[in-house]
Amino acid sequence: LLKARKVKNNEIAGVDAPESGVYDHGYQVVHLGYGIDKNVQTPTILDNAEIPVSFLGKVADIIQTESKRLFPGVDSDKLFDDLIQEVQGIEHGFIALNIQETDLAGHAEDVDRYSDRLELSDRRIKELIPYLNKGDILLVMADHGNDPTIGHSNHTRERVPLLIYSPGIQGKYVGERKTLADVGATVADYFNVGAPQNGESFLADLISN
Predict the structure, then answer these.
(1) For residues 187 and 189, what is the distance between their CA atoms, to the nearest angstrom?
(2) What is the pLDDT of residues 36-71, one digit of tens each?
(3) 190 pLDDT more than 80
(4) Mind listing the pLDDT tens digit for each residue in 89-113?
(5) Residues contacting 140, CB < 8 A, separation 6+
(6) Segment holding 138, helix H or strand E
(7) Are 132 and 87 in contact, with CB atoms under 8 Å apart?
(8) pLDDT for res 48
(9) C-alpha angle 83/165/65, rounded to 5°?
């Protein structure tokens, strides 16, 4: 870690995690939220409405919920196994899976690993789709870019995909969204509960004739 210590502008000091090699030795992390009001967030609103919430991967560590259906972890294959099990076991509820290995590969500037995790996710999503029933909505998205080829280990801020699948719905377009919070607002709208503090739902754009 000391060898990977960096100083920027003679003011900011930190550790270059990819250079330290921690990503190559079973690196895991637990995030502790600070200054977040969970009561204005969609998961807590769903909890209060007694709608099942299931979190898998990093999201199980960083988003607060009263739910006990938590599957923290990093291994993408295992998390997809858990996801399919949850989809089969929950008739009506909100399930969120966060794939962290793409983010770690981006920080490590490991192009081969990044590509491998994308291909794995593509295969596993194909396995998931047959378990979705009419009325279910699958969102595949990212919260930021992390290009492993850009020449540095920081996040990249290019626009990110928002892909939506629902059996029986085709040809819908929700436009370029202004904020990630629109997804949370859409989830709340879908379950017909109170709206979170931020965001604008695009559910009407999906279900309109």
Answers:
(1) 5
(2) 889 999 999 999 999 999 999 999 988 999 999 999
(3) yes
(4) 999 999 999 999 999 899 889 999 9
(5) 125, 161, 162, 163, 164, 165
(6) strand 138-141
(7) yes
(8) 97
(9) 45
Q: pLDDT tier at 28 (50, 70, 90 boundaries)? A: low
CA 165 to chain centre: 16
How far apart CA 178 and CA 195 sit, in angstroms, is 17
Residues in the chain, overall count: 209
Q: Which candidate, 108, 74, 79, 77, places its Cα nearest to that of 96?
A: 79
What is the rounded CA–CA span in Å between residue 57 and residue 80?
Answer: 10
- Give pTM, 2 decimals: 0.85
Q: State the pLDDT at residue 114.
A: 95
Q: Which two tokens stand for residue 119?
A: 């291909």
Q: Edge-to-edge, what's the strand order for the sheet holding 53-57?
A: 69-71, 53-57, 94-98
Tell me the C-alpha distance between 199 and 174, whole Å. Answer: 14
**70 DSSP 8-state letter:** E
Q: Sign (positive/negative) of CA torsion 76, 79, 83, 85?
A: positive
Q: What mean pLDDT value characterizes the chain? A: 91
Would you call 88 exposed, middle or buried from its count of C-beta atoms within 10 A (0-12, 13-18, 19+)?
exposed
